[in-house]
Amino acid sequence: MSAHDVVLGVLVGAAVAGELLCCIGLVVMRDVYDRLHYAMAASAVPPFLVAAAVLVEEDWTQPGINALLIAVALFFVCPVLAHATARVARTRRR
Amino acid sequence: MNVWLWGATALLLGVLPCGWVAVRASRVDALVGLQTAGTVVTLALVLLAEGFHRSSYMGVAVTLAFLSFVGTLLIARFLGGHL
User: Fold this and answer.
1) How far B1 CA lies from chain A's nearest CA (Å)?
2) Could you tell me which residue, A1 or B46, shows the higher pLDDT?
């Protein structure tokens, strides 16, 4: 097993573990705001770990750039969704 | 099976908790579950595209990332009063 394979394994493993932890947090938490916290964590770090893994494998080619585009899109777009969802939850609470 | 396909398989297990929240919790919580499921499936599609060495499959993941944003935002913005 080469260093390249080890780096890939670590990056993909960390991304999957982070994502699964956030999914478990979604179930464990009882409040919608706490759940939103975990949903946002799921879209912040793991996508960049996956993008890094794809860039290690493919270099700056079309798949690598696409994976990075997805990570950046999720990073900037999901807070907008969190804001909209929290607003709905606050309206319901009133 | 390579590391990408193992990762995608493990990642798809993350859809189950999201589904559980969508079914068992309130409708606003279900929206959060839908949001998280969108992220999880998008990343699983990236891993599957790499695992099968088909770079064209990456387009599906890019499309899903934007469509899940639009879908969830539409539900939150226009159906928020009914949640």
Assistant:
1) 13
2) B46
What is the rounded distance in angstroms from the CA atom of residue B59 to the CA atom of residue A86? 30
Q: CA A35, CA A25: separation in Å to the nearest integer?
A: 7
Q: Which of A34, A35, A45, A90 is best to mutate for the B interface (most B CBs within 10 A)?
A: A35
- Number of domains comprising chain B: 1
Average pLDDT over residues A22-44: 92
Model ipTM value? 0.91
In chain A, which residue's Cα lies nearest the Cα of B53? A63
> What are the helix (H) ranges across chain B?
3-13, 15-24, 27-51, 58-78
Domain ranges (residues) in chain A: 3-93
The structure's pTM equals 0.92
CA–CA gap between residue A18 and residue B34 (Å, rounded)? 18
Residue B4: what residue type?
W
